[in-house]
Design goal:
By secondary structure, this protein is of the alpha/beta class. It has helices at residues 8-18, 25-38, 48-57, 62-78, 80-83, 91-99, 131-148, 150-155, 168-172, 176-189, 206-214, 219-222, 255-268, 270-276, 293-297, and strands at 102-104, 115-119, 157-162, 194-200, 225-227.
Length: 309
């Protein structure tokens, strides 16, 4: 098996929280590969490191892992504008990488909690860039994390949504259809353990928008949404200063350093992304009823229906 060796801390966590049994890993991986061979509609990546991320994210439930894999590749076809990977040198991808709208944080030596992801939608102009474009870059970053970031897969992810400079133009892009795509992608397709979403620098009326979004989430994730008013002190109860950038009162360098790091990392994976684009579903070959955008997301409307102050 071509698997990375885990740190002792992560290996212990994987066994205690995810039901990982080192003696069964090879057997479980083979079971997934055998299943994928029989799925005529799926062209899926089958390397061990990729598949074990799905097994870990599903706590080694083979049935749940199959469901996630199927949805992951189905969304590449049903929602390519959000879930398909792009050439990192695409001008729009380059612009978003330069803005740093999505930035996984680095760790301090003593931190073993969930990977913290900083999301800053106010960095892009909604008249030029859409939330869908931003989510596509987030999807590409998630792919790298599935391949390389064992902490993210095993310990989970915690999101900080910084709403500084967010305008009504950003909110009106969040139609019910977009919200549903985001939730299905994050909740039903990505094998990532969601550990919470924390909103900071929130404008007036954010509760209305958050409550709208909550209706698409399962109960567990609904209960993990937090809004922090005023200063950052309440955020520090969940995220240590040691891993936060200086701009958020932390000790872990600057936002510019993070932007440069992730821009280069995505660009360095260009060949992988160009190859990755071929992995998706072909609904014409699915046994039974095809899964399409209409059957998965069939919902209309927009945030213009909300009364946002």
């Amino acid at each position: 098996m071509g698997l990375r060796e885990l740190s002792p801390e992560l290996a212990k966590q994987a066994q205690e929280e995810l039901n990982e049994d080192p003696k069964r890993i090879e057997q479980d991986l083979q079971a997934l590969k055998d299943w994928l061979v029989k799925q005529r509609h799926l062209n899926a990546r089958t390397d061990d490191q990729w598949l074990i991320a799905f097994l870990r994210g599903c706590k080694y439930s083979l049935e749940r892992t199959k469901e996630k894999l199927d949805m992951f590749y189905t969304l590449r076809t049903a929602a390519p504008e959000m879930c398909q990977v792009e050439d990192p040198m695409n001008p729009k991808i380059q612009e978003l990488l330069s803005l740093g709208a999505t930035l996984p944080l680095k760790n301090s030596p003593n931190y073993n909690g969930p990977r913290v992801i900083l999301v800053r939608p106010g960095q892009y102009d909604p008249n030029k860039i859409s939330i869908i474009d931003s989510m596509q870059v987030s999807h590409m970053i998630s792919c790298i994390q599935l391949m390389e970031d064992d902490q993210s897969v095993i310990a989970g992810q915690l999101f900080i949504i910084d709403l500084s400079n967010v305008t009504l133009g950003h909110f009106t892009q969040m139609t019910p259809s977009v919200a549903k795509k985001m939730v299905i992608s994050g909740q039903d397709a990505l094998p990532i353990r969601q550990k919470g979403t924390h909103h900071v620098n929130s404008p007036q009326g954010i509760e209305t928008i958050v409550n709208f979004f909550k209706r698409f989430l399962n109960e567990k994730n609904r209960n993990r949404i937090f809004i922090h008013s005023g200063d950052m002190e309440t955020l520090y109860e969940y995220v240590p200063k040691a891993i936060l950038p200086a701009e958020y009162g932390g000790d872990a360098g600057s936002i510019d350093d993070l932007k440069d790091y992730w821009k280069k990392k995505i660009e360095d994976h260009r060949d992988w992304f160009l190859d990755e684009a071929k992995y998706k579903s072909n609904e014409n070959n699915r046994v039974g009823k095809p899964k399409t955008a209409e059957t998965l997301f069939g919902i209309e409307g927009s945030f213009r229906q909300l009364n946002v102050d």
